[in-house]
Backbone:
């Protein structure tokens, strides 16, 4: 899985311009609370920001910028549903408040409501046809939906607007990677790094390219570079952990996977990989627990049925093993066919 840059929260000048335009029509105390909230927001003091915006909204419930900015603060503490409520209130107050549509799309993305996110960005792009960040975010969401051609069109639009946009190069490369066009993907990731050597996600994605090619040593080199820049990135830790599993470096794999799950405990790939660690360590009951947990989170996780079946077989549950492999075969697991032939007479 290629991880593109996370979509952005719009915290730029339009918030300030909107607030200034409305100050003359509002109480001094309302504006004071709003300004304090915005200052706290810019310093990422999200709870303080929420408290000040609460007070501004209590004094003036039609203050759309306060609703919108409180939504940004709620987004900052991962309270996406409440953020959506605030963005919606801002939009109800001002139906052409495009920043709120943009921000609501980000929150919809975070909770997996991709069609709603795209719908909001479709409205924004009509009124901001030259905004690279809008096309970047919409392309990211379309890619998450598996709509690769539409995502590619958005990333190419970004590059038309900003030819040296390294994020767009990485995202375009991610589309090619997901289409198994490894050579094209690699060139784009390398081009991105030629522009910006601090692109940790480009290093990570190059690691995935080399991992797919079977060059595990080179893959680990790139994952190392990504983690040098972003040591707490759970996906990078998971990817390097899997590479260590491929090399038989079980303890190194365990350390990376443990850290990955500490930062993001619901990543089904990392949970699956921890199951592989226990499978390789011959702790079959423990492996089974992790595979079943991954299945409960995302049953489409790559090769999960193959590993789950193997764990069932190791604990003496042959019928369950054969059922798992049969399901895997239906879902395109090529190795499952041989496992069925060898074990399920």
Residues:
């Amino acid at each position: 899985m290629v991880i593109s840059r996370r979509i952005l929260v719009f915290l730029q000048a339009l918030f300030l311009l909107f607030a200034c335009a409305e100050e003359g029509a509002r109480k001094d105390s309302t504006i004071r609370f709003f300004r304090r909230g915005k200052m706290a927001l810019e310093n990422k003091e999200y709870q303080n920001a929420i408290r000040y915006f609460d007070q501004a909204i209590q004094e003036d419930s039609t203050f759309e910028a306060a609703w919108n900015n409180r939504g940004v603060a709620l987004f900052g503490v991962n309270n996406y549903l409440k953020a959506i409520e605030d963005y919606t209130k801002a939009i109800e107050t001002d139906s052409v408040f495009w920043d709120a549509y943009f921000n609501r799309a980000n929150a919809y993305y975070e909770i997996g409501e991709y069609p709603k996110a795209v719908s909001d960005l479709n409205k924004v792009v009509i009124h901001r046809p030259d905004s690279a960040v809008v096309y970047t975010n919409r392309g990211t969401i379309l890619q998450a939906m598996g709509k690769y051609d539409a995502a590619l069109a958005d990333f190419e639009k970004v590059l038309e607007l900003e030819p040296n946009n390294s994020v767009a190069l990485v995202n375009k490369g991610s589309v090619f990677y997901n289409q198994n066009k490894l050579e094209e993907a690699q060139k784009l990731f390398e081009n991105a790094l030629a522009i910006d050597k601090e692109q940790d996600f480009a290093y990570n994605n190059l690691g995935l390219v080399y991992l797919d090619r079977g060059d595990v040593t080179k893959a680990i080199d790139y994952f190392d570079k990504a983690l040098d820049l972003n040591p707490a990135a759970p996906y990078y830790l998971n990817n390097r952990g899997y590479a260590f599993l491929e090399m038989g470096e079980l303890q190194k794999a365990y350390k990376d996977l443990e850290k990955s799950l500490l930062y993001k405990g619901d990543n089904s790939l990392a949970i699956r990989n921890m199951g592989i660690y226990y499978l390789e360590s011959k702790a079959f009951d423990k492996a089974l627990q992790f595979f079943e947990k991954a299945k409960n989170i995302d049953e489409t996780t790559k090769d999960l049925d193959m590993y789950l079946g193997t764990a069932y077989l190791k604990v003496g549950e042959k019928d369950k093993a054969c059922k798992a492999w049969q399901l895997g075969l239906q879902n395109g697991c090529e190795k499952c066919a041989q496992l069925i032939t060898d074990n399920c007479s």
Q: What stands out?
A: Confidence is low (pLDDT under 50) at residues 1-24. The chain has four domains: 1-128, 136-196, 198-289, 303-345. The chain is about 75% helix and 0% strand. The two ends are 35 Å apart (CA to CA).
